[in-house]
Amino acid sequence: MPMARQFSQAEAVQAPRQFDGTPAVHPACVSLPTRQCHHVLANKAENDRLARCEESIKQRFDEIVPVLKEVAALGASRDFTEQANRLAEQHLGHRFPDAVLERSWIHGVDVPTLYSSSVFSALTAGVEQFSQRIHQELADGQSLDALLVDCGFHAVNVSACADGRLKGLFPYILRLPASDLLRRSAFAGTLFDVEDDILDWQAAELRRFREGYPSTSDSGTRYLKVAVYHGSSLDPTHQGCAAHQSNEKVAMEAALERLQQFRQGIENAFCCGASTDILLIGLDTDTDAIRIHVPDSQGDLSLFRFVDNAELYKKTLGMNADQARLTIYEAIENVSDVGGWGQGAGKPHDGMRRLIANLLINNLSQIEYVAENYGGWYPDKGHGERFISIGDGFQELQVRNLAYFARLDTVEEGVADLDVGVKIFRHLNVEQGLPIPMAIHYSYDANVPGHKDRIVIKLQRVAAAIRARYSDLLSAGMLYLHGSIQDQKLGSPLEEVPLP
Fold first, then answer.
1. DSSP 3-state assignment of 185?
2. pTM metric for this prediction
């Protein structure tokens, strides 16, 4: 059964149970899963394309275990190597390492090694397959760049939680293509590196002064920092953010605190004239519906002032396109008038309102995507990642629950993210007798002399530190590492790095 199934093929899907045992009512389309909703602003063609993309990527990984079960059942037959490789080529698209197969007669089939090599082969094949799509995204990104500048932003830096359920944040949930103005990172609990992002802000401002790109220093545009936290509507106390013990309130408070520290740090160092905006987004990982916390006229955020896109989807069903868009803009303006704990100092600037409206409209398609392909709620409510991605991540492979991503330059600095990922995979893999595959990947700038060589050394140093930290898993044969680098130009080929 493909991962992305069409709703018409799954009419027998039952509404999932909430944490209290009662049947769930979908927050955006109350007739689900019995009857589908269709929103006028949802992009059906793009949803179909993304479904094919998700299926083709995940299928590479999900066929590994069934194939290995067949291989293990072959026993020590005379033509074992040939039969095993025939199965691998037919179902996985690659051969197993011959040396591993040929010594199976001694201690039996080395399933952990075959499993890990297959995961890394699926990863490499996926990157190769979708590198061409990146070039199309860059073309689409030109329109995003124009939109961002038109909304008054010369750079956007988005940090999300490293949880694999947010891995499709940009191409799926927010529908944002690759862009020269968009920087992306992931950290456990959305606890992004404030100092590192201040350096990124400095680089963006220097480029404006030196090159006037994408706007001149006197144009009045702003740098936008975005943080994305998450929770679970079906089981909020167990399937929320692992880094915050599934406490959504703590998760959003922590993300907001980092945003405020980022803005305050810049103002303290560069005075109040340093124009920065902040934005906080929440995600329901069961339905992919977002909520956006709307800033006030001073750029300040409140945990209690937000627009819930599931409610907007439901409210605008049956409207024509113009009515739906108008209702979305009105919702953004109206939320600025709330009182109590959510009260702020007026409305945000016009560019911020337009950007929020675009993100909400984009997410309407994703709400419908989950409804079309899964009946409204994802079946994998919790973690279901296939590997741990260390370093810079793979721009080509951005699909929900494909990888747990730990962005790090040194193990010492990124140990919190790493430990969360390993804890997740001890349950997902080790308890099932399967090893933890870690893909360490960094980008280099081919224009900088010697950068590639230095990145290789860095990668090998990180690999050695990981082996030392998780020596228990390594000695038990439950940890496998794979190293690769890539020119930072999007769509560049993957280059494997040997790990001594």
1. strand
2. 0.90
pLDDT of residue 2: 39
- Statement: residue 9 has pLDDT above 60: no
Per-residue model confidence (pLDDT) at position 180: 84
Q: Which residues of 28-62 are buried (b: 16+ CB within 10 A; e: fewer)?
A: bbeebbeebbebebbbeebbeebbebbbbbbebbb
Would you call 163 a catalytic residue per the annotation?
yes
Specify the DSSP element, H or E, that contains 262. Answer: helix 248-270
DSSP 294-358: PP-TTS---TT-EEEHHHHHHHHTT--HHHHHHHHHHHHHHHTT--GGG--SSPPPHHHHHHHHH
CA distance 116 to 479: 9
Question: 3-class secondary structure for 100-115?
Answer: HHHCHHHHCCCHHHHH
The residues near 106 (Cβ < 8 Å, ≥ 6 apart) are none
- Tell me, what amino acid is at 452? K
Cα 324 to Cα 37: distance, rounded to the nearest angstrom:
15
d(C-alpha 232, C-alpha 248), whole Å? 8
> Can you read off the two tokens belonging to residue 166?
């947010």
pLDDT at 378 over 80: yes
Residue 455 vs residues 45, 209, 443, 451, 496: alpha-carbon distances, Å: 40, 29, 8, 6, 12
The DSSP bridge pattern shows strands 306-308 and 290-293 to be antiparallel
Residue 3: pLDDT band (50, 70, 90) is very low
Euclidean distance between CA atoms 367 and 451, whole angstroms: 42
Residue 285 — left, alpha, or beta (φ > 0 → left; ψ -120 to 50 → alpha)?
alpha
Q: Catalytic residue, from 110, 163, 197, 392: name it.
A: 163
6 contacts: CB under 8 Å, gap ≥ 6: 51, 372, 373
DSSP 436: E
Contacts of 409 (CB under 8 A, 6+ apart): 458
